[in-house]
Amino acid sequence: MNSFLGFGSQYVDRHHARNGQRAYLHITRTRKTKKEDENNSGSGHPPKKKPTRLAIGIEGGFDVEQELYEEDVKVVILPDKQEVTSEDLATMPDVVRERVSLSMTGIMAADSVSHTLQVQQWDGEVRQESKHAADLKQLDNGVKIPPSGWRCEVCDLQENIWMNLTDGKVLCGRRYFDGSGGNNHALLHFQETGYPLAVKLGTITPDGA
Question: Where is region (Disordered) located (predicted)?
């Protein structure tokens, strides 16, 4: 409760021995039992609407169901691991009770904010304009991109093909963790030239890409 560092139970004793800290806030969370499935017609609730857009936490998107937990909070004093509950605090001197209570409240409030920030609204259908688009440099180098049949100009890969919007280079995309995707040639081209924008071929429409 002095350094605001968090530890699992197996490391608390080590931290106490190294730093001499004695007061730790111990938070135990138990997940509440879920109610009946709201999709069940016998539950008395109307069935959930099916998502109509690729989004989370906004109208028409997927619902965000936050898990609910029962919390047990107490102060533990090391090295004896003496537990101090809210009932115990009521019997302590006013100065001690006030300082410890304020500290506990502050820690729990910060923790609640961190949980709220874990889930944010997200709309996968929103297209934002890149900061590089307004003054994008496009070279007059005579390159013409065919409407189909694209291949990486370095390795001849025909899938996951990207076109650089500055010089028209057609190259393969990133290599994924499992070895699929591409051979990183579009990324390497950006690293060599600094040309910032590329578009995945096959995704271009009159409204964007």
Answer: 18-53
